[in-house]
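Sample intake — Tetraspanin
Collected from: Seriola lalandi dorsalis
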Amino acid sequence: MCCSGFLKMMMFIFNGCIFLAGAAILGVGVWLKVDSGSLLGILDNVDNVPSGISQLMNVTYLLMAVGGVLLVIGFLGCCGAIKESKCMLLTFFSIVLIIFLIEVAGAIVLFVFQGLADELLSDLEHEVISSIKKDYGSTESLTSIWNVTMDEFKCCGYRNYTDFDGSPFYNEGKGRFYPTTCCNATLITSDECAAEIAEVSMIDGCYFKLLQLIEDNAVIVAAVALGIAAIEIAAMVVSMVLYKNIK
């Protein structure tokens, strides 16, 4: 009885962690989906996106799916332990095993993608800059996404301010001006960012910011996934012990 009670308590703890992790992952997926100003939104307005990058568009759906499944298996595990249901415990074990294998594969992909990020983002350069020169200042959706992105990440264009040369925004009116985020705020006295000020300001392109973001977070995300996987292994072991002890 003492051993059974301890196993049930451990089952509650492990499944509580899995449930909370599922809620967090689901929340991140929903946030990325509804965040129209995210960098992924830029890819919607770019033609001929490389296949390696286009797959990142589905990351929000993957996060929501994994988060939802983790919520379900956390609930199943707790119910199986309370009711001492062999069916629930076996179902729990099977689903957790599948999710565990998916998470390990995903963590490996993240480690590999971290090294390929520079190459994949470089492949996007021509298409992204072409879309800026063609539509920035005339297409509201693309202009809004770029403005939010540049303001949030404190960057200018994809590589630098010259990406806006020849764009509708650059050619409108009598002047030849760039978005204000391309100029150091201390160097401009109005809302106009001239070429000479943009050159002196040397604001980094969003390419470099995105690359840094990927490199900084890929290892963290992979480590978290492996941490959740370790909890899942422990939960699977406990569930099988409980399954064996139920008469």
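Post-analysis note: The chain has a mean pLDDT of 79.
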